[in-house]
Design brief:
Elements: H1 3-13, E1 15-16, E2 21-22, H2 24-38, H3 43-48, H4 50-53, H5 60-68, H6 72-87, H7 90-103
Antiparallel strand pairs: 1-2
Helix pairs in contact: 1-6, 2-5, 2-6
Length: 111
C-alpha cells in the first residue's frame, strides 16, 4: 500500500461524503497512531492506549502494516498529508477525495 492509498483509506473511513461531514478528530488520532508506529510501538501497545485507540480500532491494523512496510519519510509524508486534509474546508476535502479516487483508478475518469 502506498501513501496515496493509505491516505484515501483513512479519510474515507472517517468521512460522510453525502453530507460533507468529516471526523477530523479521528483522523488526528490516526496521525498520532502513525507517529507511535513510526517510533516502534506495536499494534498491541497502541490498542492498549484507549484514549488514543478508541473509535479507530478497526483501522489500526492497516496503519500498523503501512508503517511496518514504509520508510520513516513515507510515514511522515502521510502524517503531514492527513494534517493538511484536516485543516481544509469541507468543499476542498470533497475535491481532494475525488482527485485521489480518480488518480488511484477507483472512479471512472471523465473524458
Amino acid at each position: 500500500m502506498n501513501n496515496f492509498e493509505a491516505f484515501l483509506e483513512v479519510v474515507l473511513r472517517f468521512s460522510d461524503l453525502k453530507w460533507s461531514q468529516f471526523r477530523d478528530d479521528l483522523i488526528v488520532k490516526c496521525m498520532k497512531a502513525l507517529r507511535r508506529f513510526r517510533d516502534g510501538k506495536s499494534l498491541r501497545e497502541v490498542l492498549e492506549d484507549r484514549k488514543l485507540s478508541s473509535e479507530i480500532e478497526d483501522i489500526l491494523p492497516l496503519l500498523e502494516e503501512f508503517s511496518r512496510n514504509s520508510t520513516r519519510e513515507e510515514i511522515n509524508r502521510l502524517i503531514d498529508s492527513l494534517g493538511i486534509f484536516t485543516k481544509a474546508p469541507a468543499p476542498c476535502k470533497t475535491k481532494i477525495i475525488s482527485l485521489m479516487e480518480t488518480m488511484l483508478g477507483r472512479v471512472e475518469a471523465k473524458g
